[in-house]
Amino acid sequence: MRRALIIGGGWAGIAAMRTMSRHGGSDPGQPTTCRGPRIGGAANPLAATLVEERPYLGGRARSFTDRHTGDEIDNGQHVMMGCYHGFLSMLDAHHTMRRTEDLLEQQSALRVAFADTTGRRSVLDASRLPGRAGIAAGLALLGGLSLRGRLAALRLAALLLQRKASGKGLTCAQFLERYGQPLDVIKRFWEPIVLATLNAPLHLASAELLVTVMELAFLGTRSDATMLIPKTGLSSIFDSVSRHQGRFQEHVGVGVNRLVIRQGIVERAVLGNGREMAVQAVISAIPQRALERLLASSGITDHGLPPAPEMSPIISVYLWYDQAWMKDDFTAALGTTVQWVFDKRRIRPGLVALTVSAGSSLVSEPTEVIAQRCDAELRQLFPELRGIGLRHSQVIKEKQATPLFTPHTVRPAATALQPLAKNLIIAGDWTDTGLPATIEGAVRSGITAAELVYDVVG
Ligand SMILES: Cc1cc2nc3c(=O)[nH]c(=O)nc-3n(C[C@H](O)[C@H](O)[C@H](O)COP(=O)(O)OP(=O)(O)OC[C@H]3O[C@@H](n4cnc5c(N)ncnc54)[C@H](O)[C@@H]3O)c2cc1C
Hints:
Strand content: 15-25%
Number of helices: 12
Bound molecules: flavin-adenine dinucleotide
CATH topology of the largest domain: FAD/NAD(P)-binding domain
CATH class of the largest domain: Alpha Beta
Radius of gyration: 23 Å
Largest sheet: 7 strands, mixed
Strand order of the largest sheet: 8-7-16-17-18-15-19
Distance between the termini: 14 Å
Structural class: alpha+beta
CATH superfamily of the largest domain: FAD/NAD(P)-binding domain
Number of domains: 3
CATH architecture of the largest domain: 3-Layer(bba) Sandwich
Shape: globular
């Protein structure tokens, strides 16, 4: 039987697998937009095997059990948006497992609460008017901004809507300066968006990606701009789209050690357990540096990939308080190391998840120091925490959370790695999806890669 090998069991790999299995006729979901022929009943059908070197699927978006409390927590709080169309249609198509509404809480319109260390609260509320006018009204009424700041932000939003603001070749800091954004609106509005969506500081982050985020998410439809917060652990969401059957198999705990490439074709893969697998096509759904290591162990250093971008860390902190205390589901924190606070009362009343994006300054600090600092900052931000004790903490440092895309980063397309091997197709959040390194980017790259497999194998 002809076989495609998918290397890597993160969102890119699983999206490739699902696209192929639905296409190959073994999946009860609805047809995808895949271009290739239906091959389920063909005389020589195509099988797909996904291998993941870790003992679990999910890659950088997974959950695990905290040993002290037994609670299921994520490797870091993830937030999706209504504009994650690839991700959402993948969940929706899989009716046999859990429904999307059981997995994710979706806002009816964008609403973000902000808190600062003076105790001031403000809310960006897009529900007052329909469509994009709602975001404009929300911005116009956002508290804590000077009149000048508000007008400047509205002017830039209008330019973005008319596609008249370009971020090409600029960092976010340069872009915001060029479009006359005063400091208060940068600190209280733009910086939280950049950190949350690009995981990079303003002086490094690509403004082109910020423009994309604004166009697709905040200035898209009312539904596109909403936030979706997982109701369960990330691994449960992942489980709802994995577990394939028949010709489509997933194996965890076994990696690919080496590829045998001859005359521009990958012929075989050598797995970590010593097994060799003959392949007609390979989708590499692993991070760029992992792919470079795999190619090096296959004797290839001249792979034609652009230099791998630096990776940007995210520090996530879980704090277990004696009782629930948050008024909003989540709040953006201003003027503190902590940037976002999420109420995790669904898991346990009093549990909160904190996020520090672009967290390189915290990476080398001891975890107890980080937890103490975060607790102290929360008490400054939220007077309602007075008298409530902290019982337990967990700090997770994801040092390789996402690639840091600057204006100078070159991202290769999710396509065959030519001229090295015409049947080796690359996917992953780092490829040129046009999006920041996100679950949605990973999913879209996986779908594209799966479609290309049919072009390769015929
Ligand atoms: C803390 C944190 C918070 C985040 N927050 C958000 C968020 O709010 N919203 C959002 O959209 N995104 C967020 N992201 C980013 C998102 O998680 C990633 O963009 C996405 O999960 C990347 O998926 P991927 O499939 O491209 O890569 P990965 O998830 O890295 O998957 C690659 C897989 O390949 C495996 N692998 C590597 N080498 C081999 C080999 N030789 N053989 C077999 N397997 C191999 C790895 O073990 C891994 O499981 C966050 C990331 C982190 C870390």
